[in-house]
Amino acid sequence: MKNIILTGDRPTGRLHVGHYVGSLKERVSLQNSGEYDEVYIMVADAQALTDNADNPEKVRQNVMQVALDYLSCGIDPTKSNIFIQSMIPELAELTVYYMNLVTVSRVQRNPTVKAEIKQKNFETSLPLGFFCYPVSQASDITAFKATTVPAGEDQMPMIEQCCEIVRKFNEVYGETLVEPKIVLPTNKSCLRLPGIDGKAKMSKSLGNCIYLSDTEEDTKKKVMSMFTDPTHLRREDPGHVEGNPVFTYLDAFCKDEYFAEYLPDYKNLDELKAHYQRGGLGDMVVKKFLNNVIQTELRPIRERRNDWEKRLPDVYEILKQGTAKARETAAQTLSEVKHAMRIDYFTDDNLLK
Ligand code: TRP
From the CB of 51, is ligand 1 less than 6 Å away? Predict the structure, then answer.
């Protein structure tokens, strides 16, 4: 069996460092591992429209931004197919058939859907399309017979739901679809990077993100304004590293070698944490160090983005070609699905059989 990657993001905004450590970084290393026969990275515009029906222009604008973010992070168009979801109508068609295999109450129990409904205050105005997006996401994944989905932790319930659809389909219509596995970052602090305000999640609506496309100065301003430990008032006070986003970011981004370069008084993060906890270490020192670490990590991404931004017609071509390739694959799976269901009526006069 082939090893195939499919994953994607909703283009509702530019991608931020939470996306980077939570999944993008992993995707790039999987892409470069040589272990995958095919890699598909999807700009999920149709999914973005499920809660942005009144603002298609926002989604449209961000299609290109997300593609630029992918390329800047090191998604390589010679190894990966970057494509646009809505340009593959086969995905919508698969969704129509999969919806019959899922109950309303099952989607209602999906923890990610539940959390989003709450967060978006959808109690009485939940769009049906939004409610159904876990099913459409199963189409995204199965259309490519993906074995591996590198995604954020919040996508776990989606993959579970997808596997249930695969099992149900194969049981009812015969072995056709492939169950995927999610790949999460191994570093636990990368699973859910808090916002710079210390809130549980980086989110555009909370205005607490560091974007991959932020300038060096903007990034620095954001790092220097980060929420830390509110009980650490004076330098001498003992501080807390748990729940302190400055240390969570260091857990996510820091390598030992950065100490030699930027903060040689300490050998590693454990030493720095111990000093902070004991007292006598000011927030400014830690933030300045974090800024150096983050800038070093983001600089190559920023430089690649600057290059790609000068070559937008090339980005357009990459999307076009990636989409054409993705469409071929999805069309092949759809025909297998219809064959399994025996609704491929006009193939080989099947309706007469
Ligand atoms: N739900 C994902 C997000 O919120 C986007 C997405 C759509 C996706 N289809 C997918 C992710 C398939 C992984 C696999 O960003």
Answer: no
